[in-house]
Amino acid sequence: MSDDLPVARIAPPAILADPAPAAVLAALPGGRAVGGAVRDVLAGRPVADVDVAAPFPPEEIAARLTAAGLRVHETGLAHGTVTAVLAGQPVEVTSLRRDVVTDGRHAVVAWTTSWREDAARRDFTMNALSLSAEGELWDYFGGRADLEAGRVRFVGDPATRLAEDHLRALRYFRFQARYGRGDPDPAAVEAIRGAVPFLSRLSVERIWMELKRLLAAPDPAEAVALMEATGVLPTVLGPATLGAPGVLGALAAIGAPADPMLRFDALLTHGAAEAARRLKASGEEVARLVARYRAGHDILPIQPAIAVGGPDDDALRRLLADQPRDRLLDAAWLRQAVNRAWGWQGPDDPAWDRFRARLAALPIPTFPLQGRDALALGVKPGPEMGRLLAETRRWWMEDGCTADADACRRQLAEMMKAIHTKTLPKM
Ligand code: ATP
Ligand code: MG
């Protein structure tokens, strides 16, 4: 271990003095923060959670942490990871590992005491840094310089690293989107092209998770374009047809929220829900895309009105009565981005902003009658009641969604009378 010298000493970051990481590091002599936390400390970015590694087998790590009074969850023990919790803050603690067998999807690992070996199995040089509580920095593969230069570079030979784990082809784009500057590393791009035929072996769940992480980056458009150019994106999306290439970029340009689902939608526009279903997205996620699609149908025809400051409040309430507000907002962002990407003349940007502000501000109208109101008026339960309520709701919508319960009851009563006299009421 005498050759395992730190390359630098930096001011110990405050995040390592938080109760949980500090207690973990104190309980594990020779332990270091690893991975994303070290990278983000050096990049001056906010650090979400600290991962720690230590040169002991997992059982020993668990025993030492427990003895130090931390709560320890052993769910990942077989992979060498335990989760320590203190004051509600979790810290993942992993034994130093080296790969014994890899097949592109799974790895058999062995514990090691070599930090260099552990760093060598990590994906990118900027992810292979480690840092002690005292601020000593270890950097075996030039990760610090790569981070500063905006180079996302594989540790070791890219093709070998991709053959060990195909998921790294997708992870590359996530880190490229967040830390890449200038031209992407040619060796990485070439190796990723070569790995495309193997990507179909990845489980769709892992693909979906990685895609969402990529799409959560502040501005993923360039990395996504590269992903398309290398053939990775069409392969992982399967038969889905990509939408216009510029929509994702336009979405960022108009200031839309950094929402991975909205961006996935922008990537495909048509068939986003279908593609998400194929990737085994959650029911909630698929439902959101379906609802956005429906809301989009209602936005399309009112664009001329949006351009001139409309539509009026009655029309807006009708929209809100029929479609979830958040999906209308999604649809408005997407429509605006599509217009911009295609160079279509539509409402200008401030008009869209005003439209969304009004959509966001109006209370959601709810139809004031329920089945029991119809019962009280003497309507028998059954299809007749459903029809009468639906008709009354239609009248309430036409009227601008402002009629109160009494007015709706009167309307329903009139409709009943009309049915009995076989004439329709005047609306
Ligand atoms: P984020 O802030 O997005 O979570 P992260 O660096 O913490 O970034 P994780 O996916 O949480 O990313 O992984 C933690 C660390 O584990 C990485 O920094 C990297 O060192 C290592 N790692 C994760 N997945 C792989 C992989 N497939 N191959 C090699 N190393 C990996
Ligand atoms: Mg992480």
Write a structural description.
By secondary structure, this protein is of the alpha+beta class. It folds into 4 domains: 8-149, 2-Layer Sandwich (Beta Polymerase, domain 2); 155-237, cca-adding enzyme, domain 2 (Orthogonal Bundle), CATH 1.10.3090.10; 239-364, no CATH class; 371-423, no CATH class. The protein contains 22 helices and 10 strands. It has helices at 19-27, 36-42, 58-67, 115-120, 143-149, 158-164, 167-179, 186-195, 204-215, 221-229, 232-237, 247-253, 260-268, 272-278, 283-299, 303-307, 313-322, 325-342, 349-361, 371-376, 383-398, 405-420; strands at 8-9, 32-34, 51-54, 71-73, 81-86, 89-95, 97-102, 107-111, 129-131, 136-139. Strands 1-10-9-2-3-6-5-4 form an 8-stranded mixed beta sheet. The protein has a two-stranded antiparallel ribbon with strand order 7-8. A hairpin with a 4-residue loop joins strand 7 and strand 8 (107-111). Helix 6 (158-164) packs parallel to helix 8, helix 15 (283-299) crosses helix 18 (325-342) and helix 18 (325-342) runs antiparallel to helix 19 (349-361). It starts with 7 loop residues before the first strand and ends in a 7-residue tail after the last helix. The structure holds adenosine-5'-triphosphate and magnesium ion. Residues 35-36, 51, 122-123, 127, 165, 167-168, 171 line the site of adenosine-5'-triphosphate (ATP). The site of adenosine-5'-triphosphate has 10 residues, from helix 7.
